[in-house]
C-alpha cells in the first residue's frame, strides 16, 4: 500500500493558526461509518449524537513546555525538544542542529539560569541530556521551556498556548503535542454529557515521537512507529469491560486514546486485570486500512496531515475513500485544519 494514496490538497489558509475563543464553537462533521454520509454541525452539538450509556474515553496527558532554546559554548544557538523525561535530571530530546551537539558538550539557557550536558546520542535523531544545574528537568522546562507548537503553526508560542494547547482535563505531564481531539471540550460540555448519562473515562498516553514524527517510508507497511508510554487503571478497565459486555458504544476521543484501547484489547488486558491496580505499557500500534478494531465503536478526531499515521488510523476506521471524501468536503466547506482546527465524529 502506497503512502501517497493518503494525500489530499489543502489550501494553506485553512490551517488554523490560533484557537477559537470558545472551545466548543469548533465545527463538527458527523459521519455515518456505514454510508459515509456527513452533516455539518458544531462541537457543542455533540450531545445530540450520544445517548445514555455511551462511553467517551479521554486522554488526560498534559503537554509540557518541551522546547528549550540553548546556547553552545561556541556562542551559537541550538534547540532541544524534550521528548521523554527519564528522571529528575535526565531527558531524551531531539537536538537541532544535531551535528553541533556532540557527547560531552555543555549548553546553557535562560541567560545562564540553567545548564545541560549532552551525554550520548540515541539513534539518528535523539540525544540523552543531563541537567547539571540545581533545577530538575521539569523545573527547567516550566521556567524556560516553550510550548512545542507544530511546525505548520507559523508563529512563536505565546502565553495563551500554555492553556489553549491543553485540554481542560489534562493532568499528568509528559506529552510533546496535545491530544487535539480533546481540545474542543470545555467544563460545561463535559458536565452536560455526564448529566445526559454519558460515561466519561480517562487514560494516559504521552504523545511522543510515535505521533509527532512523519512516516519515512513510501510503502505504508514498511513504517514502524516509535513507542509511546500509556497508563490505564483497573477501574477504567472494569468500566470498559462492562460497557463492552452490555453492548454499549465506546468512543475514544482522539487517535491516542484509540491506540491505547486497540493495544490492550488484543493483549487480553480487558479480560484479565485487577480492578485495584494500575497498568503501564508502551504501544507502537500502527493502524492502517485492513486493521481490525476491537473496542472502538466510534471516533472523535481532528483533521490530520496528509500521509500521516493519524490520517491512516482514521482511514482504517472509516475506509480510505470515505475518509478522503470527507476531507475534500471539509476543504470545500472551509473547515479549519490540524491541531487548532475543527473535528470529526464518526459513528
Textual characterization of the structure:
- The chain has helices at about 135-145, 160-165, 185-195, 210, 235-245, 255-265, 310-320, 320-330, and strands at about 25-30, 40, 55-60, 60-65, 65-70, 75-85, 90-95, 105-110, 115-120, 125-130, 170-175, 200-205, 230-235, 250, 280-285, 300, 345.
- The protein has about 350 residues and is of the alpha+beta class.
- The protein folds into 2 domains: about 5-65 and about 160-345, QueA-like, CATH 3.40.1780; about 65-145, Thrombin, subunit H.
- Strands 5-6-7-10-9-8 form a 6-stranded antiparallel beta barrel. The protein has a 5-stranded mixed beta sheet with strand order 14-3-12-13-15. A 4-stranded mixed beta sheet has the order 2-1-17-16, covered by helices on one side.
- A hairpin with a 4-residue loop joins strand 5 (about 65-70) and strand 6 (about 75-85).
- It is globular and about 60 Å long.
- The model has no long low-confidence stretch (mean pLDDT about 95).
Task: Please list the strands of the largest sheet in the order they lie side by side.
Answer: 5-6-7-10-9-8
User: Biggest sheet: strands, sense, closure?
Assistant: 6 strands, antiparallel, barrel
Number of helices: 8
Q: How many angstroms does the end-to-end distance come to?
A: 26 Å
CATH superfamily of the largest domain: QueA-like
* Backbone shape: globular
**Rounded Rg:** 20 Å
Structural class: alpha+beta
Key terms:
alpha+beta; single chain; 347 residues; Thrombin, subunit H; QueA-like; five-stranded mixed sheet; 20% helix; 8 helices
Amino acid at each position: 500500500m502506497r503512502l501517497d494514496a493518503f494525500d489530499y490538497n489543502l489550501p494553506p489558509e485553512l490551517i488554523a493558526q490560533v484557537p477559537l475563543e470558545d472551545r466548543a464553537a469548533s465545527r463538527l462533521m458527523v459521519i455515518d461509518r456505514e454510508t459515509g454520509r456527513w452533516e455539518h454541525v458544531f462541537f457543542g452539538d455533540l450531545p445530540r449524537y450520544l445517548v445514555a450509556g455511551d462511553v467517551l474515553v479521554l486522554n488526560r496527558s498534559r503537554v509540557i513546555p518541551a522546547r528549550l532554546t540553548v546556547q553552545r559554548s561556541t556562542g551559537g544557538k541550538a534547540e532541544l525538544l524534550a521528548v521523554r523525561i527519564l528522571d529528575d535530571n535526565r531527558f531524551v530530546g531531539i537536538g537541532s542542529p544535531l551535528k553541533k551537539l556532540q557527547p560531552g558538550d555543555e549548553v546553557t539557557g535562560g541567560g545562564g539560569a540553567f545548564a545541560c550536558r549532552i551525554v550520548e546520542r540515541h539513534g539518528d535523531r535523539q540525544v540523552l541530556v543531563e541537567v547539571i544545574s540545581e533545577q530538575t528537568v521539569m523545573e527547567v522546562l516550566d521556567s524556560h521551556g516553550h510550548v512545542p507548537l507544530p511546525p505548520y503553526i507559523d508563529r512563536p508560542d505565546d502565553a495563551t498556548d500554555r492553556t489553549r494547547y491543553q485540554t481542560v482535563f489534562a493532568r499528568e505531564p509528559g506529552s510533546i503535542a496535545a491530544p487535539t481531539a480533546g481540545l474542543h471540550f470545555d467544563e460545561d460540555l463535559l458536565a452536560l454529557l455526564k448529566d445526559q448519562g454519558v460515561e466519561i473515562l480517562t487514560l494516559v498516553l504521552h504523545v511522543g515521537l510515535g505521533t509527532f514524527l512523519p512516516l519515512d517510508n513510501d510503502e505504508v507497511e514498511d513504517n514502524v512507529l516509535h513507542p509511546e508510554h500509556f497508563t490505564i487503571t483497573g477501574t477504567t478497565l472494569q468500566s470498559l469491560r462492562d460497557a463492552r459486555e452490555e453492548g454499549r458504544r465506546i468512543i475514544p476521543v482522539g487517535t491516542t486514546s484509540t491506540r491505547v484501547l486497540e493495544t490492550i484489547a488484543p493483549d487480553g488486558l480487558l479480560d484479565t486485570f485487577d480492578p485495584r491496580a494500575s497498568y503501564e505499557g508502551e504501544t507502537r500500534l500502527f493502524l492502517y486500512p485492513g486493521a481490525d478494531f476491537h473496542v472502538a465503536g466510534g471516533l472523535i478526531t481532528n483533521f490530520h496531515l496528509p500521509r500521516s499515521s493519524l490520517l491512516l488510523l482514521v482511514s482504517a476506521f472509516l475506509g480510505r475513500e470515505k475518509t478522503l471524501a470527507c476531507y475534500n468536503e471539509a476543504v470545500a466547506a472551509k473547515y479549519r485544519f490540524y491541531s487548532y482546527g475543527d473535528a470529526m465524529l464518526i459513528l
